[in-house]
User: Fold these one by one.
Assistant:
Number 1:
Amino acid sequence: MAELKWELLTEVQGRLEAEFIKSYLEAQEIDVELFQESVGHHIYPVTINGLGRVQIFVSKEQAVEARRLLDDYNNAKES
C-alpha cells in the first residue's frame, strides 16, 4: 500500500477559521488540504454536534514547519 502523503495538523470549529489557517500556511508555501463533512458547509452551515469541525491536513514533508507556523498563528491570536 502506498504511504499517505498528508498528515493531520489540527481540527478547528468552523470553515472560516480553517480558511484563515489555510491561507496563512499557503502564504508560507505549505501544502494544505481541508476536510469537512459535507453537511457542515452547505447553504446554511451546521456547527453543532461536531458537524462544523474542519480537519486541516498538511504534506508530511512540511508537517514540522506547519506545526511551528500554527503555534505562531495561535500565539498571535492570543496577543
Number 2:
Amino acid sequence: MSTIGKNIKKFRQEKGLSQDKLSKLADLSLNTVVKIELDESPNPTIETIQRIAKALEVSVDDLLKK
C-alpha cells in the first residue's frame, strides 16, 4: 500500500468515516477513494489529494508523510 493510501485510511478511520462518507465529503467517487486506499491508483492528482485532505481536515503534507 502506498504511503498516501495508508495515511488516508488512517486519518479516515481516526475520524470514524466510511469510505463512502469520505468520498461524498471530498466530492469524489467511492471508487476513487477505494482505489487510492488499496493502491490500485497509486498516483492520484494533486487536486484529488487536496480534496481528500480538506475533507479529512488535515494538510496535504500529512497525507504525504511516511
Number 3:
Amino acid sequence: MRTTEDYRLSIYQDYGQFGEKEHIHLVRNKKTGQICVKKIVDYTQQDVLEFRQRTSNQFFPKLYEIIQAGEKLIIVEEYINGVTLEEYMMGEPLSEETAANLAKQVCQALCELHHFKPMIVYRDLKTENIMVTAEGTIKLIDFNISRSFHEGKKRDTVLLGTAEYAAPEQFGYFQTDNRTDIYAFGILFNYMLTGKYPIDGITEGKYGRLIQKCIELEPSKRYQSVEQIMKELGWDSKNTEQKRSWTIPGFRSNTNWKKVVAVLGYISIISIGMDMDYIQSDGEPYPMLIQWINRIMITIAQLAAVLFCCDYKGISNGFKPYQSRFFIVRLISYVATWFAFICISVILSNFIEVILT
C-alpha cells in the first residue's frame, strides 16, 4: 500500500546526485516544473528544520518538504541559482565595500538563527556554504552540523566543523553558542578582504580591529552578539530588515553597475509614461486633466510591474512561473505581468474619466 510519504516523494523526479555529496540530489517537482534539492538528514536536525519551516527570511533556502524515511529525514528545499562565495571571489580578495555588504547580510542571517528559541548555532560558516545570487543576495546552505543551544550543557556531543573556521570550543572545550558563529564570521570576513586566513595575516584596513575581536580564543573576549558587529559595520540591527525591505530593485545588492542600470531604467519608464499623448476616437486629444491622469496611471502601472517582477518586499514570493527553470516561461510571465498591470491602469483611468466627465 502506498504511504503518504511515498506519494510526496513521487511528486519529485530525481535527476541524480548533485555535486560531490551522495546524500544530495537534484529533483524536479512534476506538478510545477520547479527545480529543487533533495537531501537526507539526521533526526538530530529537528530543531533546525523547525526553524527553517517557520522562517521566511530571504537568506535561507525555502524548505518545501520534510518526509520521514526510517531513521532519517528527507527534505526538499529551494534550489539556489547562484555561485558559492568561494567562486564569487574568483581567487581574489573583495573590495571593502563589497565584502562589507556581504558581511552585513551574513550578520542578518546569523541574527535570525541566534534569536530563534532554542538558539540555532550554524557552526559551519565558510565560503563554500554561502551562495551569492545574481541579485547579490547571500543564502546560507548546508545546515548539516547546525545545532540548537541547550542551557547548562558543558560541551557538544559531536565535535564537528571546518578546521580553518572552527572556534576552539568546537573541539570540545565548551558548548558551542552564538559566539562560535561570531568566531567563524571573523575568519570569513578576513578571508573576503585578504584572500587569507588570519593565521597568515589580518587585514590592515578599517575592519582589522573588528576581525581581531571576533577571533579571540576565549569566547568572553569576543563580541557577545551579532548585533554588536552590525553596529560596528554601521547598521542598526533593530532596523536592518526594515531598511533593506524598503530598498527598491536595482539597489538591493549595493552593486554599482546595477544601480546605474536601475536609475536609467526608472528614468526611461517615467519619461516615456509622462510624455505620452492620448487621442480620442474622433482624432481629438483628451482634455489636459485626462491626459495627465492617463500618464500618471500608465507610469505607476509600469513601475508596479517592475516591483512585482522583482519580488519587492516579497510581493510575488511563491509565484511559480517566476521560479521556472525555463527562461521562456519566466520571460512570458514577466511580459504577462506588465500587460496585466497596464490593463488595470487603463480600466482605472477610464473609470476616473467617467467620474470626472
Number 4:
Amino acid sequence: EQFYLFVDAFRFEMAKEYVLLLEKRGHKVELTHAFTALPTLTSTAKVKASPVAEEVNTTSEIKDFTPFFNSGKPVIISNFRAELENKGFQHSIKKGFEPAKSYWVEIGNIDTRGHDEQAEMLKRTDELFDEISEIIDTAIEAGIKEIKIVTDHGWLMLPGGLPSSKIVKDLTVARCGRCAYIKEGVKTELPQLPWEWNSSVYIAYAPGISFFRNNEEYAHGGISLQECIVPEIKIQVEKDELLNSKISSHKWVNLRCQIETENTPDGFLIDIRTKYNDEKTSIVLSTGKSISGNKCSLMVDDSAIDSAAFIVLTNERGKIIDKTNTTIGN
C-alpha cells in the first residue's frame, strides 16, 4: 500500500519550512530532493512524480507540452486518473482512507493562485500548510503508516515583475512564459534542452530569470534551480499513532469540559483550541492537561463562550492523535 500526497507547485524552500512544522509536531520526517521533468510545467512534470510515470511513452509527440501514455491517450486528467486506477490507486477521498488501499491525493492551488494573485500568493502560505496538515492528520487517524509528499515543479517570484525576454511568436509551435518549442529549422540563441518525454524534441528556455511576457511576478517552466529542484517528503507514522486512541465523548458544565477517551495511555494530553493544529490558539486555563484513566477535565477562558473550537488529543510530544469539534459551553 502506498499513499502519495501531491502538493501542486510545492517549491523546495516552502516545503522545507513546512517540514519544520511537522517536526515540531513530533512527526518522523525525511526530506530529500529530486530534479523534476523539463520543462517545469504541470503538463510535463506532474506525471513524472506519480506512480504511473512508467506508463508514459518516451517517444511522445509533443502537444502543448503534454505527453502520451503508452496506450496512445494524452496525459490529461481523465486519462491520468484512469491509469492510477489501473495501478490500484484511489484518487477520491470522499469516503475516507483505508490502510489496505493505495492513494494518490491532490491538494493545494499554489500554482493557480500564483498566476492569479502574483506575489500576493505568499500571504496564503499558512492556509496551504493547514490544508496539507488536515489531509495528513486524517490519513494518520485512518491508520495510514507512511505518507509521501511530492510535487511537479517550483517557481520564480519577483515582486514588481520578472525581466522580459523577447521571442518571435510566429517562430514557435508552443510557448509558455519561460519556455518555447521552436519550429523545426528556426535558428535561435536561446538555450535548448531535450523534452522529458522525447529526447529528440528540444525546448528553448528564457535566459536567467526572464519571462517571454511583461509584468509577471510569478513564473515557472524554466531551468532555474528554484524551478527544477523539488522536494520529496516522507512521513513515517509511529506506533503510538496507531493505538486507535480517540476522543469518545465530551460534556460542558458551564466553562468546564469533561472529556472521555478510548484506548489512550495515561500521560497523553487534551487541549482545546480555536485552530486545531496550532497550540498557540489554546483557550485552556487549566494547568493540567494530562489524561488519566481515559478522562480529563479542562476549564476554558470565559471570553470563548459559545464560540466554535476543537478538542485535540495528542501524545506526550504534542503530536495530534485525534480531534473533534465543539461549541464552548454547549
